[in-house]
Design goal:
The complex is a heterodimer of chains A (158) and B (192). Chain A is α+β, with helices and mostly antiparallel strands and 158 residues long. Chain A is 16% helix and 48% strand. In chain A, strand 6 (106-114) and strand 7 form a beta hairpin. The chains are: A alpha+beta (158), B alpha+beta (192).
């Protein structure tokens, strides 16, 4: 009986949540990473970005630790704000989405990072294919000379 | 002269072998003599009729003998017979009448053989080579691996209180390069 109730609840949650997911234009994974020169390797949870993190300009770092991972659903022209553990906030804005025949879905994505005091640090707009990754790195880790923060973004869309 | 004394003398007198006086014959001997004349006439008439009937056969026989004599003992060539007329009425009917049972038996045997050949023949195997051209359907959704991709493009970059550098990490096989924005800011003591 308990199993049946659990299954029914799962089915209900799926039915309720599915339209909300399908209504989104893109889904993005945001990785907060601390890279340092200390030995440690690449966090197993960073497998999706590992091939990038082991190439220049990241070869100066030997440890990549996942601080936090965020999942964000994006809707066109609707900013999505994430509270960062390493800094203040990150705002994602899906500015455009195109799906031409024979091509991957193309996204036009705006990203801005503000400090803890609300001060703007960096803002950029990039066009990239769905599934491609985008890295913003170089923000200093407080109290650590040989460490930086790396923000990795991977967005999927159909 | 006296008359015959018995039948033998009477027959000799009838045949002319002995002279006799018919006047001396009695009534009985005259009746016998008349009977002999009648029997003689009957025999002569019968023989003449038989000779007349046998005359064509005897002529043909004599002709054959004569031809063989002229051919010096060899068998002479038979005179060419007139070819039988196929359309002679009655010829085919007679032939058919004589051979009808044989013909019917042969026809039935042939029919039975034909039925057996048809019934017992192995199943017919027919090999046809047909060239089939599969219909070419347009590709609706090409595989993802064949979908053309474009490298990322940074439209604008703004770094407040520092500088930014756009770097590119080459992608692996079939993968787009990755854009890296490297931000250079002053080291901070507290949270950024």
């Amino acid at each position: 009986m308990r199993l049946l109730m659990t299954a029914a609840a799962a089915l209900l949650a799926l039915v309720v949540a599915a339209p909300a997911v399908w209504a989104q234009d893109a889904r993005c994974e945001v990785y907060e990473i601390e890279a340092s020169a200390a030995e440690g390797g690449v966090d197993a949870k960073l497998r999706r970005l590992e091939s990038k993190l082991t190439k220049p300009p990241f070869t100066a770092y030997k440890s990549f630790r996942l601080v936090k991972k965020h999942d964000a659903g994006l809707t066109l022209d609707t900013p999505q704000r994430l509270g960062l553990q390493t800094a203040g906030t990150m705002e994602l804005l899906l500015k455009d989405k195109s799906a031409e025949k024979g091509k991957k879905v193309r996204l036009r994505l705006g990203v801005s990072i503000d400090g803890a005091k609300g001060k703007r640090i960096v803002a950029a707009t990039t066009q990239l294919d769905a599934g491609d990754s985008w890295l913003i790195a170089g923000l200093p880790v407080p109290g650590k000379d040989n460490a930086v923060y790396v923000f990795g973004l991977v967005c999927d869309a159909k | 002269m006296s008359g015959p004394r018995d039948d033998l003398e009477l027959m000799q007198m009838f045949d002319g072998e002995t002279a006799g006086d018919e006047a001396a014959l009695d009534a009985d001997q005259r009746a016998k003599l008349a009977a002999l004349e009648q029997v003689g006439d009957a025999v002569r008439t019968h023989l003449e009729l038989a000779a007349d009937a046998a005359e064509p056969k005897l002529d043909a026989m004599w002709a054959t003998i004569e031809r063989r004599i002229h051919a010096n003992g060899k068998a002479p060539a038979e005179p060419a017979k007139a070819p039988a007329k196929a359309s002679q009425p009655g010829w085919f009917s007679r032939w058919l009448e004589n051979w009808r049972s044989n013909l019917m038996t042969g026809a039935l045997a042939a029919a039975a053989a034909a039925v057996l050949v048809i019934a017992l023949r192995p199943p017919r195997t027919e090999v046809r080579t047909v060239e089939v051209t599969p219909p070419v359907e347009p590709v609706k959704d090409p595989p993802t691996a064949l979908v053309k991709s474009e490298p990322p493009v940074v439209e604008d970059l703004e770094v407040v209180g520092g500088s930014g550098t756009i770097l590119t990490i080459p992608g692996e096989e079939g993968e787009n390069p990755t854009t890296v924005i490297w931000v250079n800011t002053e080291p901070v003591e507290g949270p950024i």
